[in-house]
Amino acid sequence: MVNHVKRKSTQKQSTEQTPFVLKDCALIAIATGKRAFNLKELRDDLNIVSEDSIYQHFWGSLLEPLFEEREYNNDFAAWARRGLHDDKLAERLAMVDPSEYTNLEQLREELIEIIEERWDENESLPWRLATEPFVFIESQIVVFDTDKRIQQPEELTTLLPNLSTSSIFYHFIDARRRLSDRSDDFRAWLTGFNGKYDDICQQLAALDLYFSTLTELRQQLTQIFNNCCGELS
Fold this sequence. Notes:
single chain, two-stranded antiparallel sheet, 11 helices
């Protein structure tokens, strides 16, 4: 009789899932005082600037107002083209996808390696004076609680289309810096539903988060939740 009661108590599990806390954010740009007037100075500064600065120059532009299509996704590639007028270096830097690196230190090392490989091809390039300096800035994220709580993933089908792009940034991009498994807040929450939403998680993991705008990401997220939640219902 005792064993029976014990088995029964161990099988009793809570099915209540913690609600998803919907947040928003802003990136506050902060001057570092560092300026690079040639490629050598850029390389030297890259060795010592904070990770927050590297993060800003890759991801910060996603939150900036977009009045025209950008030629390059990161500030380093844009400066190589606009300041140094070196198309080869610009193209190589533009191909760097920060989401493919485990951490920002690995990303820093990749940038330095690309720069040094390029100046090995052109001995005068490290000293060529740029027509405009590269201005290093760093960013600090400010997070806001929207006071919205989501109990079930199906609710996202109506919320996502009207979600701010900065909220998409916080939950889908910045989360990868915060979470130890480099996941996003949506997947981290969905895993608490005992595998019911594994299909959504797989599709979210496959999204290209760097070479898409936040508006495009919001549309893709909306479509994934609409399709999968419709099938589950």
